[in-house]
Amino acid sequence: MKVLVGLSGGVDSSVAAALLLRQGHAVTGAYMKNWINEENIAGHCPWMQDIEDARAVAERLGIEFRVVNLMKEYRERIVNTMLAGYEEGITPNPDVMCNREMKFGVFLDYALKEGFDRVATGHYVRGGEHGGRACLWEGADRNKDQSYFLALLRQEQIQRGLFPVGELQKSEVRSLAEAQGLVTATKKDSQGICFIGEVKMSDFLKAFIPDKPGPIVDLEGKRLGEHRGLHLYTLGQRKGIRVPSNTEGQAYVVVAKRREGNELVIAFDQAGTPGLYARRASLHSLSWCGEELGGELQVEAKPRYRAVRSPVGLKVGDEGRAEVIFEQAQRALAPGQICALYQGERLLGGGVFAEILG
Fold first, then answer.
1. Which CATH architecture does the domain made up of 277-356 adopt?
2. What are phi and psi of 28, to 5 degrees?
3. Where are the alpha helices (DSSP H) in 42-168?
4. Per-residue pLDDT of the chain (358 residues; tens, 9 = 90+)
């Protein structure tokens, strides 16, 4: 097949390209140029070095290399959507949206127009078929599994995707890169916001959303301090509240954001704290990776990336909405975050938390 590999300048996508070449495919590498930090936001935005590393990998492998400028689409589909979400008081997940809208959206569209059959990435996820449909499973390296970030992909996107490193451990990936003499073999994994780099979310938001200070209150409404803007806080947050612990050393945690009064509500971080733990939530934008399911289901879910799969009951409604009920109460479920759905190791799909119901 003709495959366009998204070379990010990291070791995972580098090895993905090398493996595809070994399998006999016609491989081209492409760096998606989505962001160059024109706003001079504090932090490290390594796009220039990433391009050079991606180019060096392509040269070493003897494949064509391209830089695909998708800055306009990234700003419209990811950055603007993310900023609008924070202004509305929710906590969006730009990494999940980036996979759906950019890597397997705009970038995939570009690849198909250029005559490629598939796009490939360095995601730690296993691809295959189930019931005659393309499906995804958790990566073999459980510590690196990235299936959560692909939970909103649609069937037609998965059909066009290849994930060559999904069967490998991270240590194996680095060994393969070293054996191939790739410059990325010992390069540290990227951190931070998808395609933006090692930038604190609070610093990124400050560049676009003005502070709107308001009161910090406890569950009884007593004023304890002043916040800088509700968009800078998320449910379950402990650091950066700037309200000291009590005399017993108990730390405060964010349990609610009241937009109507611009109030940040905090309470002590302990079991039974109202608003901190919940079992029920509604979802919107429900998306299925394979077969579209309906009715009442018993599946598993991850309410955040590092969460362990947890048994849930799922009641599927109309227009991409559903209600999820966890067997065990979950800490700090937040509107805007992603709930990934599984059947064992197989990724079924996912949705966006709309409202936490208790």
1. Beta Barrel (2.40)
2. -125, 140
3. 47-61, 71-74, 80-87, 94-98, 107-113, 155-159
4. 999 999 999 999 999 999 999 999 999 999 999 887 665 565 666 788 899 999 999 999 999 999 999 999 999 999 999 999 999 989 999 999 999 999 999 999 999 999 999 999 999 999 999 999 999 999 999 999 999 999 999 999 999 999 999 999 999 999 999 999 999 999 998 766 666 667 788 888 988 999 999 999 999 999 999 999 999 999 999 999 989 877 677 889 999 999 999 999 999 988 788 889 999 999 999 999 998 999 999 999 999 999 999 999 999 999 999 999 999 999 999 999 999 999 999 999 999 999 999 8
45 an active-site residue?
A: no
- Cα(162)–Cα(119) distance, integer angstroms: 6
List phi, psi (to 5°) of 355. Answer: -145, 135
Active site residue 98: yes
* Given the residues 98, 135, 289, 339, the one annotated as active site: 98
Catalytic residue among 45, 135, 194, 289: 194
2-122+164-202 falls under which CATH superfamily? HUPs (3.40.50.620)
In CATH, the number for domain 210-268 is: 2.30.30.280
